[in-house]
Amino acid sequence: MKKTIGKLLLVFILMIIYAYTLSIENIPDELVIFEGETISLKTLFGINIRANSETMETASSTSETSSVSQNLGTATLQVSLFDTINLKNVNVDILPKTTVIPVGTIAGVKLYTSGVLVVGMSEIEGADNKKYKPYENTGIKEGDTITQINNTEIHSTEELIETVNQAQGEAVKIQYIQEKETKECSIEPVKTSNNEYKLGLWVRDSAAGVGTVTFYEPSTKTFGALGHGITDIDTEELINIASGEFVTTRILNITKGENGNPGKIQGTVENQQNIGKIYKNSKFGIYGTVDNLASLNIDTSKEMEVALREEIQVGKATILCSLDNQNLQEYEIEIEKIYKENNYDNKSMQIKVTDERLLEKTGGIIQGMSGSPIIQNGKFIGAVTHVLVNNPQEGYAVFGDIMLKQSKEVN
């Protein structure tokens, strides 16, 4: 009996240690906030967060710590156990309040990867009619990015094919990135009946599509779009880009959304005008600089503040979207839920389309509308990111402050 109680006690203690470890790990090492913004960090009893700078004030409780920025600049939050054992420090950058111009223009996206992305693997039939898997037991897998072959940098599929064939069947040294870690392996290419040498890897070096430009920030000439990242259709991994382009698009067709079948906007990026360059593809959207402001067809007098989360309310709001080739319209939506403490994904708010004009045209939220800016009480509060497949009238949106903080990292 005593042994059983002892084991249960040990399990209980280990569970507590695990819970506290997770709580500490979930506190970020760095934070970016706007002047006047309140942040809330969930903690467990005994984990205290204090500011060791006059730049910030903190107020602690047993369940969370709220920090209110006072001045611009940098600050440090000290995380401790019962104010005795220092656990970690959180570096905080405090930015000035920002104004942006909500855009709502649907544009074309062209992304070019850093290296080439492995999207599949297949057997190779050699010149001897036998089947080979040259990649087997090398460690390389789908979702990895090949950056070098035989110390030669690889930027495209064509360069990979050329470099492999130059080896004339000799084993090639491959450098690749797997889950942010750079690795190397050696693969011996297989000669086919066409006198070509193959690795058995399917690769891709670019991606294209359409989405909505969310905002333009005049002070930095940067833009944010989509509200979510662009992932590879095969690996479902976020594409690691080397560069990208934003171009105007001509809408060809709109497929209305239905329950269980999300609609979409189809457009062409061929022979269109350049808007700007894309430098960042993150889970909170894509970001870059605007080179041709006229191509966005925006009203520069519509500049407005980015709302802090405390200012966002459940209730009526509007979205901007140009579904008729540059004809920008404002449509009514309803904000149903707000997840103020969410900094981890792009589902910050749950929204519902209520405007009959938009429901008639699209059925609700459809693919291509991601990035449509949301406005409430004269302030930019966020962007549309997802649709609920079983109910296209409803979906999710990301906070505007998250997108602005991401764009600051472009400069």
Distance between the termini: 64 Å
Low-confidence stretches: 59-63
How many domain modules? 3
Largest sheet: 6 strands, antiparallel, barrel
User: Which value, in Å, is the CA radius of gyration?
Assistant: 25 Å
**Major sheet: order of its strands?**
9-18-19-24-23-20
SSE map:
Layout: H1 2-25, E1 30-34, E2 38-42, E3 47-51, E4 56-60, E5 64-69, E6 73-81, E7 85-95, E8 99-102, E9 106-121, E10 124-125, E11 131-132, E12 145-149, E13 152-153, H2 157-166, E14 172-178, E15 181-187, E16 190-191, E17 197-198, E18 201-217, E19 222-225, E20 241-248, E21 250-255, E22 264-268, E23 274-282, E24 285-290, E25 304-305, E26 315-321, E27 329-338, E28 349-353, H3 356-362, E29 373-376, E30 379-388, E31 391-399, H4 400-408
Parallel strand pairs: 1-7
Antiparallel strand pairs: 2-5, 3-6, 4-5, 6-7, 8-18, 8-25, 9-12, 9-18, 9-20, 10-11, 12-13, 12-14, 14-15, 16-17, 18-19, 19-24, 20-23, 21-22, 23-24, 26-27, 26-29, 27-28, 28-31, 29-30, 30-31
